Target: Glycosyltransferase 2-like domain-containing protein
Amino acid sequence: MLLIGPRVGVVIVNWNGWRDTLDAFASLQRAHFSNWTLFVVDNASSDESVARLSDLSPRLRLIRSTANLGFAGGCNAGIAAARAAEMEAVFLLNSDAAVRADTLDALVTAHAGAPDAVLGAVVRYADGGKLQFFGSRTASGTGAPEWFDADADAHELDRSLIPSDFAFGAALFAPVTVFDRVGPFDERFFLTYEETDWCYRARSLGHRCFIVRDAVVDHLGSASLGAATSPLQAYFLQRNRLLFWEKHAGTRRLLRGAKTDLRWLARGFRDDARALVRGRSIAPTRRALFAAWRDYLLRRFGDCPASVRRLRTLPGT
Model:
């Protein structure tokens, strides 16, 4: 076990997922680098999370929130706790992710060579090891981030430090001084796009962003959002994409991206109209997208309406 490098505060946001969080903790305990403390923010879980995560180890500090702050607010609470404990760097880790034995070593080594940079790990799916995220570029048309493709952009992995527009929030490392300068995550996002927005803000202040090729995290998927096609995911991605464009892409690109999204939504609306005529209901995902547009236009941010969460239980989701 190595005890070198900065004091790293690992932040995990837990919401009704204590089993995944314990697995993530176990992976940290197997890491070669050992100068870390885990800060788990429990987002008002309704399961056994608090009981299961309390008093486990001196290396795990549980921060209990009385409300669900989302990933953005939970990270902010964890970063604040790490700062108060005089951590020198923060590593955000998803509750359903696991580090490998040398992941933290690779991040700390990269940090020594680029002390003011935002760093991210290469994220692979835990089931099969396929690449999920290893960097992104800004799309010229919309100004939105475009994730590297595992086939077309595989050459990027030839570099030990891969320049990227942002680091995936499932595995994001930065010194506390950078968090202090950039400020907290924008809690309007609640879930998705919060780390992208934060990294764009960091880059606007001159902080570079790299993905560290030799730092690998294995990710189960989106435990909070459900399946990739779930109404909940559709809602947050649509609403938050519009907010992200508004903040970073400029009016022209916002309108261009919104036009494309609305055209797609209109085609779906025609399908829904035909379904209603035939006595069927509107697809749950489409309902979620309508709600996302409505809430963006009405400036309703933070958590989604309860009606969107209920769509997760409808058939076909």
Notes: Confidence is low (pLDDT under 50) at residues 313-317. Residues 231-313 form one domain. Residues 250-277 form the longest helix (28 residues).
